[in-house]
Structure formats: C-alpha cells, structure tokens
Amino acid sequence: SQTIHQWPATLVQPVGSPLSLECTVEGTSNPNLYWYRQAAGRGLQLLFYSVGIGQISSEVPQNLSASRPQDRQFILSSKKLLLSDSGFYLCAWSPRTGSGTEAFFGQGTRLTVV
Amino acid sequence: GDSVTQMEGPVTLSEEAFLTINCTYTATGYPSLFWYVQYPGEGLQLLLKATKADDKGSNKGFEATYRKETTSFHLEKGSVQVSDSAVYFCALSRIGGGTSYGKLTFGQGTILTVHP
User: Which residues of chain A does B25 touch, with a Cβ-Cβ cutoff of 8 Å?
Assistant: First the structure.
C-alpha cells in the first residue's frame, strides 16, 4: 500500500533563517506531488505541484520554493523565513492515472516563525 | 476559476444529534467532489467522494450526494459522536489525467464540536 511521510512534525524557526521540509511517498511511482499551506483558522491553499522530477509549478507568489530531486521526494524550502510563513504545511500525492482523482495527505508540519 | 463554499462554523452539537454541513461549488465541467476530515494536529483524511452527478458517497455513517442541479455536496450524519469532533473540508477536483489529478480546491473548513 502507499504511504506518505512528512517531517519534521513541528518546527520553530527564527525570522530570516532557512527552511527545508521533506516529503517522501512509498508504494507508488510517478505520483503527482503537492504542497499545501493551512494558515490558522483558514482553509488550505495550494502552493506548489509537480508532475515529474524537476517539474515544479507555483500556484501563488511567495517566499517559498519547491524541488523534486527524485520521483517520490518533494522538498519545500526558503532561504529566509518571514513571520507570515507560519502555518501548517501539508504534502500530498495523487496517482497520475486511474479512476480516482483524490489526493492523499501526510501528517503535516506545524511551522512557527518567531 | 473553481471555488468551494462551506457553511460558516463552528458547529456545536450534542451526541446523537443530526449533522448537516452545507457545501456548494462553482466549476466548469464535471468535477469530482470530496469531503475530507482533519482531526486535531493531524493531516487530512479522505472521508468520502463522488465522481458524477447523483452519486452518493458514504463512509463511517457520513454521506453526501452529488447534486449537479444545485451544485451542492452537503455532508450529513444521522447521529454524531464525540469522536466526530474535527474540521471538515469540502473539496473538488477536475476530472482528467496528468496535472489535473489530485489538484484540489478546498472550502474554508467547518469546525465540528460534539459534546457528550
């Protein structure tokens, strides 16, 4: 069966520090991969998605970037964090083909920028 | 663009009460519709889904019917439990392959609290 791992679970970082969040998927190949952010008390916003190694699409302008160095690895990064980057970050995957169109989510990373 | 609108929360109910969380959507074509649930401090879990008009998704006593004529996908449960306390998200996804799969548009979420 497929599983998705996301780490760390919580992170407290000072303003101006770098960020690296990692997500890996097991049990499938060629997945579509996604990074979502959930700000406190609000819904989910799609930040990036990727359909293949090295292929990244950004949905909103922001201080963050994403990379996909391997088929089942997706990394969210920042060179200098802002207070407004605080939130709950969720990685997700979906199959490239098939009858279902849902996404499957990791457990999330709670990022607090202080 | 696509959008999903959920009823404002939070919703507070007593155990065994009937639950309805309204969800309406705007999208071109024929999207798939989903309800996700998020327990405190956790990621999202798929609760149920429907991929075409008049489909009824159901799971764990929850159900929702895809109503194309009213562009709605309301979540219902006949008798809620304390363990159902969570945030519920309605979402849609365009049907199609490649980049469309899993690219979800979410509603703002509805917080449900069930008291004993």
Answer: none
The mean pLDDT of chain A is: 90
- Sort out which chain B residues have CB atoms less than 8 A from A96's CB and list them: 97-98, 101
Complete edge-to-edge strand list for the sheet that includes strand A65-70 = A3-7, A19-26, A73-78, A65-70
Rounded (10°) CA dihedral B19, A93, A62, A75: 140
Q: What confidence category does residue B22 fall into, taking pLDDT thresholds of 50, 70 and 90?
A: very high
CA B1/CA B18 separation, integer angstroms = 33
* pLDDT value, residue A106: 94
Q: Which two tokens stand for residue B25?
A: 């959507």
Nearest residue to A56 via CA among A45, A69, A43, A44: A69
